[in-house]
Amino acid sequence: MSSSPPPASAPARSGRMSRRGSGNGPQPYDFRRPIKLSREHVRMLQIAFETYGRNAGTLLTTRLRANCNVNLLSVDQVTYDEFINQLSNPTVVAQVSVEPLPGSMLLEMPMVSTMAAIDHMLGGPGGPQPERPLTDVETPLLEDLLKRLLGELRYGFDRLVDISPKLGPIEYNPQFVRTQSPGDAVVVAQFEMKIGDIESTASLCLPFNTILPVLQTEAHAAELTPAERAALDRVRRNLSASLASAPIDVAVRFRGIRMRTDDIIKLVPGDVVPLGHPVALPLAVTVNDATFAHAVPGNQGARLACLVVPPPSKESPA
């Protein structure tokens, strides 16, 4: 008689996303989402989020008058559905507009940290608090705290793009938040948040299509070292020299005509096809069907040749 399989071990923190690449073995690859953030793009985001985390920790310490820390854990690319399904319920999910960028960002803060922060702002000692809906007095305190945190986000992204985050609606059930389609790619930054003795994992979610153009522009505008600039100039000179000496096919053409398919099939050696090219009109000098000069036919010794002439004026006979 076979024994039943052992129960799966419970995750260390319910409703939280695990860091990618922390386990051993192969990682799944979704061919529906082949576009991935490059290592350079991830590093740029890490710098921005680390700056935000340090400033956010300082802000919380000053505002709550308690020892607070916000440290970046990971930056991952997932689908919107994966992000929402990994959030606990209830939790604070605030929609944030990030003008001038399109789309909306999500700022998620666990209820355990939210209630501890509000208790500190009301003069309490913090510590474990009941998870319940906020009162009419507590809601403005939360909104003011989130607006201050968004101000630090603007400073964190200052080197990438000048954004103006604005707080939007706040939801407590993640399933009610639908700013993206379930399969849309998003970039999720997870933070270890400590407010006094309370520890939790907060997160920021940005639409992939919103942040990718910013990263690509910043990567092209990155400051180069003198050695990198010299290498780039050397490559450009070599490329220009190679292109200047590359052979290409050049054609000198008469004006084209249109013929019926059956007339072309009936052609035999000796037939004469009138081209309709005016004698006074120069021929077109083309490369890959693009006309770049005009010429008149002639010869140089025993070889056919052409003489490049100015382009015909608009008054030339058609």
TrEMBL record:
It is a peripheral membrane protein. It holds the Pfam family FliMN_C. Residues 243-308 form the Flagellar motor switch protein FliN-like C-terminal domain. CDD domains: FliM. GO terms for cellular component: bacterial-type flagellum basal body; plasma membrane. Keywords: Bacterial flagellum, Cell membrane, Cell projection, Chemotaxis, Cilium, Flagellar rotation, Flagellum, Membrane. GO terms for molecular function: cytoskeletal motor activity. Belongs to the FliM family. This is Flagellar motor switch protein FliM. It comes from Pilimelia terevasa.
